[in-house]
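Quick one:
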Amino acid sequence: MPSVTHEALVELFKNRPRLAAEMLHDALGQPVPAFTEARVESSDLAEVVPSERRADVIVVLLVSEQQRPAMAIVVEVQLGVDPDKPYVWPVYVTQTRARHRCPTRLLVVTIKAAMARWSARPIDTGHPGWTLTPLVLGPEGVPVVTDAEQAKAAPEVVVLSAMAHGEGEAGEAIGVAFLAAAAGLDQERRALYADVVLSSLNAAARRTLEAMMKSGYQYQSEFARSYVAQGKQEGREEGVREGTLKAKAHDVLAVLEARGLEIPADVRERVLASTDIAELDRWIRRAAVVSDARELLATNGS
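Output:
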């Protein structure tokens, strides 16, 4: 199931179709043709051979006179490494280009700097002269929106700004700018965007914004409530797992210390950083028999 962050980003580009063109031009400095309408089109790119091909959002920029497509933009939200994407992204571009008969851009959106670097890697398709280099909107490219008038003019941009920069020093100012824009939104968008903004801000900024919203803020949208409920369950499960990892790591060190073995700092650090329960179980057994703590990390032992 896609994360709430992924789905929220997708909704921003669906709710403001021209956002893709704005980010290409304003944030990434890419040329964008003159257009009179930006329209979200079907993102189902299924081929004749049954195979699921669905981009997150496809936006087509149209020229009014003949409703002629001037450019298509494939928007892909990327929050984690996916080895399939270098293979399907070229498909999205070529199939969208063939369907709409116009130049097509691939815009990858992420709020994680590491993912921006991963997503920007050129994709060698294997055909001479055809290397696809994704255009990536990462956190550094997202504007910091703290101006109320700017937020009112483009509410989706201020929400995107909160998602990219809400944990930083500008979090509170971004949140206040969003409140200025919220009054002009329909109830559904206002509820969804408020949920996303609040969940994106640092703790201090969130407390300030909640106080300004008369305190006791509850998640308003069905969209957010469903994902928050799922997140709480996942959080509980993750908490149990983290507790187990921590306990087993300390068991490994306790066995070594009980046997009077010196534990070098790098070994201690490696044990405490492990996220593999099976690995820790193996180390507990080895800790009882090794003559040197460094032998614990040997890869050929059982």
